[in-house]
Records
---
Amino acid sequence: MYGYSIMEENTIVNRVAGSGLITLNLEDLHPRAEIAEIDLKQLLVGGFMLREKDLREFIRSHDWQQYQGKIVAVHCSVDAVVPTWAYMLLSIALQPFSLLTVFGNRQSALTTAYHDALRKIDWTEYRGAKVVVKGCSDVHVPESVFVEAAGHLREVAASIMYGEPCSTVPLYKKANSGG
């Protein structure tokens, strides 16, 4: 029951603790930095076109210090004519201040930050391990992060499960290479 068994009278053994499972909690990769957005919608002429002169004035007069140490999502939330160079200008202006600048909305920035964190993990630490990818979390972990983590783990882990150590869904078990 719930990962425990009674061995002898008055002795409770935690089978989960003795199973050798390693839990990967992707929630631990949640960015600590605040995510800010710059929406070019505010600069559009007639609600559909961006003028270079207006953008350059915005860049010249904007308080870029407010993005210090933040993850910044740059986008236009309406269907409009926004040339690629406009986003590039914003990225250049943000570079000295932002921790990370992402094209897209707040969700895109969150996903990119998670994927950057995944690329920094030393996946060899999971070589031959039985890994449970924790399913429940207090913060939103994008599904694409679970997908990428599964791909990395598939290369090294002996088995991959999803959920909680006491209740998992088996996802992968490496074939026995011994003869």
---
Amino acid sequence: MIVDCAVYQSGHREPGTLDLDQVAAACRRTDAFVWIGLYEPTDEEFDTVAREFGLHELAVEDAVTAHQRPKLEMYDQSLFIVLKTARYVDELEVVQFGEIQIFVGDGFVVHVRHGEASPLAEARRRVEQRPDLLKFGPGAVAHAIVDKVVDDYAPAIAGIENDISEVEYEVFSDSGTNPVERIYKLKREVLELHGATVPLVEPLDDLTRRSFALVPDDLDEYFRDVHDHLLRIVQRVVTDRDLLSSVLEANLTRVSVRQNEDMRKISAWVAIAAVPTMIAGLYGMNFEHMPELESTYGYPVVLAFMATVCVLLYWRFRRSGWL
């Protein structure tokens, strides 16, 4: 689905939208470029765009099928950038991931978005308010999209860090719960965030250090700012990953401790119950000659003896911390 298709001349958007059969003429105009946004296009929809701009077949295949790792590649005369997007869904307490592919060429920018994360309408509005950046052409649009994607990592990480704090409290509380499943799911999401952010460091570094004809040198400092922001995001992701590993180990330790405490309590009660069981078992053997068998006070004496021993054992186990 084509979300938006517009032509930009000298840093300003021209009124209205374009049809695909008009983009070729618009791309050839001086100081003008076309920006097309697509959302989960079908093969037929994207094939029309690919033929119009002469996109490389390998990049087209990646854009349609998605599920690519973040990367930066040059195909013929176009630049191909793959980004992983992320957003935190508070109701479900999960992170949803998506993907954006950007084609940057001479006189055009085409982005293909998959998933609900990082909608780019805001990025388009933001960069349209900066004609001083838009005058640099398609490279400025690529910066706006990358900047939006990297900015959206922060709320996702904040949501995960809030969940980690809740899990930490749950692990060290006295409730006796075992949140190992939630810890594992959080660890899985952090690893996916790690896979979305870390591979993007090198492409952004290339955009700031290498010379690309489609990305003017004037944009280097802007990409460098995004790169620095991304490095801070990566550091938070690595910290959260290590923290979750520590929380998981602490949870396993707490479970082991609780199991040991339960075993000690069970063992103490078994020891206490063994005394009356043993005595009752002896007197239940029905031998004819047994001590105190015909004594008037034999029954209360035996009961008192069993109660005394049980109380002494309870007191001793209580004092030693087993009960």
---
Amino acid sequence: MTTTDPLRAQALADQFGHAVARRLSAGTDEMSYEARERLRAARVRALAARKQEEVAPVTVGRGGAATLGLGQRSWFNRVASVLPLVILAAGLVLIHVSQSDRRASELAEVDAALLTDDLPPAAYADPGFVQFLRTGGGN
């Protein structure tokens, strides 16, 4: 099937509808005025119902693809459409909290290593100590 098949099917349906309307209109000359007016009112209602159906945009996928209807939606569909966003936000918050906790524990380990070392903490800030480490004197 190509992408023009739905358009062709719609055109064929319209042609059939016009043919039926011509056939029905052919015998209206012998009818009474009241019957013709009831038929005209019925046609107007049918056209109005057809136009309302065409207004609702609906995308239909093929072969098991998702269907998105923008017409009336149930509360379950509304909740189901918001649920992935809520789960994503909760996941981002959880990742942020775990990263913050891990960073805090890494800083605590560094602080504990500095405080329990033989050198005083001020030695690490001394520019000469960096030179001492580069020359291999720390081994």
